[in-house]
Amino acid sequence: MAPTVNTRADAWGGDAAGRGRLLLExxxxxxxxxxxxxxxxxxxxxxxxxxxxxxxxxxxxxxSWAGALGGLGLAWLHVVDHSAMGAPPxxxxxxxxxxxxxxGTLILSGxxxxxxxxxxxxEGRGDLVAFxxxxxxxxxxxxxxxxxxxxxxxxxxxxxxxxxxxxTDY
Length: 170
Description:
The chain has 7 helices and 4 strands. By secondary structure, it is of the alpha/beta class. It has a domain at 16-130.
């Protein structure tokens, strides 16, 4: 959806509406097939990968796409903040704008610990907080969070690789 990557000049590229067309078509068709109450979308504003780089209207584009997704009555919108991995942060104002535009359940993720998750939930910044990488290295994450125990750091060299190492040896 980034103009630095999607350089198409047809209806599936160009302006924000064209670049978001695939996202919305997939969400529409999945909703038609299984029901919107079973469909959610994960967005990564300010996420960087290869040639994806921030662009001038990035916040406005993501808010527009969130509004269009909200109009479909989807189950949830999952907003990822990759700043813990070195990407620019998704600022609180953008998260609030995405929440308002979508109008449904908002899941937050990205570099959370128990205290930050509780604070963002208590302040109404989201409805749920997702923990991805911490679950890989802490299969007992829920118990650790409840007990206030330290988390084991992930071994990134084992992510998405074959074999037991990294998945069954924590």
